[in-house]
Every structure is written in structure tokens, then in C-alpha cells.
Amino acid sequence: MTDSPRPNGNRRTPLPPASPPGTATSRTDTPRTDTPRSGASSSKKRRDAFFDNAKYLAIVLVAVGHFWEPIKGDSRFMEAAYTVVYAFHMPAFIIISGFFSRSFDMRPDRLRRLITGVAVPYIIFETAYPLFKRVVDSDPGQEISLLDPWYLTWFLCALFVWRLTTPIWKAVRHPLPLALGLAMLASVSPQIGDDLDLQRVLQFLPYFVLGLCMRPEHFHLVRRRSVRILSVPVFASALALAWWAEPRMTTGWLYHRDSAQELGAPWWAGPVMMLVLFGCSLLLTACFFAWVPGRHMWFTALGAGTLYGYLLHGFVAKAGEYRGWFEPSVLHEPVGAVAVTVFAAVLVTFLCSLPVQRVFRFALEPRMEWAFRRDAAEPAREREQREKRAKQEAGETRESREAQEQVSA
């Protein structure tokens, strides 16, 4: 794929293989693509714009959904829009996370990145959110528990478990049916409890495993112009269906955090709803990917900071809930809903920006070299990478010189 796709949506250059995964949104999570230099045949590695764009747009929808929740009230249209957004925004994000976890193994350097990029942020924010509630909401009884993910931290807990089990999913013959089976069993198992939010870990697991099974060409299938055109009536139909279902179905099914019995439904409804929602989510996710631009946009660079936007916007959303910022009636009217939507999008965009990343990197991407033993094979890998870069630079210099000689001739 190039930075600017062809107008007809066909004949794109295949995506390159994914690079080794880092954190959920770290700079190593996005594969790089070769972009030709002007006046030379050599190329330099750049991040693939499509995945950064997809991550940024997905995290904007996550923030918008959280800010819609306290203002949707009795508005049937707002509830329908909220349902549609919640049906695919986290599945899309989780599929991308799975796609970039394909090369994860138990190599020491990758385990270190998993700890520093997922486990450590989980501990920090799982502590910070309850402390924030104690101060802002004047709730001294709010407990800190690393076993009970609070608000947004469930995703870090789930990602840690999913990545650790990646070698298993790569080893079994039919990983996706197995993951779906586990998710269906979880939907009828209220005894699982809330520890580590295992209901969400298991019920969202199929999306992560699907990402592991996907190849670059699968993303091309949904990014054709025909799919982009068909996605318009699909989204319109989904909105109409959500409007019809609003008084007939609880949105609790979309959160995947409770069993069927806990939602007041018969046990057999759990597996059925799991399969129905999985199919609907995949359809809407495909439509979402169809509209994600593949070229470099003004927000592409923000895709590297989506974990920052995800975890930090929660403090603002919760502060509004604690302080009653969403109570004015004007916010529950169409004009107010639009204003809240714009505010949420601007807020998460700012929180994904480079200055914010620099300030909070100590919490979300700490290096922590002092905490780990040096891998004996790491110097050899670093030396190999240096030699590879030196050969590449030498080749680029030679090709550039030859090109200049041909121009001079």
C-alpha cells in the first residue's frame, strides 16, 4: 500500500508484513511501508498510514461514546447511535491489536515490552483512577484493587492476557472457532465473577484471535470502492435496527461484561447473542475500515498515541460525571449533543498529541531498563540491525550517486 491510494480503489501495492508488536498503541505496533524518494529508486521506511488512521478514528469513537453515555437520556436516536458505535469501535481496535500481535512470542525483549507497555500502565492507572475518585468525588471509601479493573483499565488487563496466550492460538489448528466457543461458554457462566474482568477478557477474545489470523490482504478486501459504497446503506440499516431494538434490548450485551443470567435473560440467549453480536460487529467493523483513509492525513501521527488518549480522557469524563457537568438540560438537546461530540473529539485528539505523550511517557511507555536483566542475545541483534542499516544506507548512497551520474550524462 502506498501513502495515496488510487482513485478507483484497486491495484494497491500489498501491505508489508507486520513488525514485532510493542504496546497496544506503541510506535512499533504499526508496520512500515517503503515510500520511494524523489529522484532516486531507494526508499525509506515509514509507518503505514492506514493503521494509524484506523486507531485514531476508533479511539475518537471510544471517547465520543463515553461522553454520549451521560447525555443520551431518553433520546431514542441518541441511544440508537450509541448502540451502533458500541457495536464496532472496540472490536475494531481489538482486531488491530491482534493483527500486530501475530509475531509475539516469549522472547525476552518482547516480554519486557509487554510488561512496560501494558502491565505497568495497568498498575499505574488502576491506582490513579480510584485516587482520582477519592479526591474529585469526595469518596474516601473508594478502594484500590489490582484484581478488579476500574473503568477503562479492563482493556490493558485483557490485552496482557491475550498477548500472553498468543503462542497458544498460533499453535492450535482452528483458533477462531475455539475462541468463539470459550466466549459462548463465558456468556453462560455467571460464576466467573469480576476478578480481572474475565468476562470481557473471554467475550472479546474472538476479535483478538481474528486479528491474529488476518493477513494484510484481508484489509484490502474491505477497502475496495464497492465495499465503501455498500457500507453506507449498511450503516443506515444498522442505525434503523438499533432504533427499533432500543426499547426491546438492553445495551448491556454490547459491553460483554456480564453473563446472560446477570442480564436477566435465559442461559441459551448468551451463546446466541454472542454469535449474533460477533457477526454484526464484524460487518460494521468492515464498513468502518472501508472508510479509513490509506494516505497520510493530518491526524495520522496521532495514531501512535491512542493509548494516551484512551486512558487520559477517562479522567475528564469521570470528572464531568462527579461534578455534574452533564446535568444542564441544553446538553440533552440536539445542539448540546453536537457540542459534546465535538468536545470529546477535540479532547482525545489533544491527548493523543506528541506534547502529551512526552509528559506522560513515564507512565505509559516507561523504559525501566533498571528492572530487567540484559538479554544475552540482544547485543548480537543490535549489531545485526546496525550492520543492516549501514548496508542499506550504503546502497542508498550508491544508487543516489548512480542516478546523479545518469542525469549528468
From TrEMBL:
Residues 1-11 have a biased composition (Polar residues). GO terms for molecular function: acyltransferase activity. InterPro entries: Acyl_transf_3_dom (IPR002656), Nod_factor_acetyltransferase (IPR052734). The keyword DNA repair does not apply. Residues 1-45, 376-409 are annotated as: Disordered. Pfam families: Acyl_transf_3. Keywords: Acyltransferase, Membrane, Transferase, Transmembrane, Transmembrane helix. The chain crosses the membrane at residues 50-68, 80-101, 113-132, 144-164, 227-245, 265-291, 298-316, 336-356. Residues 49-349 form the Acyltransferase domain. The keyword Transmembrane helix applies. It comes from the Bacteria. This is Acyltransferase family protein.
